[in-house]
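Q: What structure does this chain adopt?
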Amino acid sequence: MKDEKSAKFESIYEQLLKEIQNGNYLPGSKLPTEKDLAERFVVSRNTLRQALMLLTQEGYISNQQGRGTFVLQNIPESASSYDQISNPMLKCAKTPVNRIAKEFSIQNTNSEIREKFGFDASKLLIKLCISYLADDRMIGHADAYVPYDLMAESKVPLDDADAVYDFYEYLISRSDIKGTSIINIDMTDEDIRKTMEIQDPEPLMRISESYRDKNGYLVLIQDLYMRMTDYEIRIHKPFRI
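A:
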């Protein structure tokens, strides 16, 4: 039996989805603020955010840094292939992610990552550690690196983990950013087992990604770790003539 909280956010999700599909909110339009929606549905912002997260996972809405939440074009099933997904940690999970734990640090000690960006020792990087939980169990984890200067130029408040994460989501969803992904199956090493609270070695799906802007400059490097029992990657191939 579903608890009352689950029923609330699912009912909000269903109502907002219906309104989007019925044209109450047109593609490109902005949703009301979290405060206004929470007051409308008489729920906490946390409960509302769970509903908004589901709509984001389904590809109906997107949160844009500093601007608000906007309605996207509905993505048909035939187009929801891996290369159409901005964040597979959310979209490819078999069980909806209901909590995201975020932390970040400023560093210049990782010489391997620094070399990939073409940076010398004077350049700083922001490292994001992002854990994805379903039913309060960690099913995935991401280690991401973004140039410090890029966040500073974009005026991201570096004392706010949520703001840093929102900028990360903004980067990976931008249409003018080109990403490359390499998928591997690896046995868990000691560090990732500790991070993901995995007791015994098990195979994980690891996706190594790099993102470049239109000028060819790297703006993001990340490794995504997914428990294979909790994720599914779909690749749709079009008919060939």
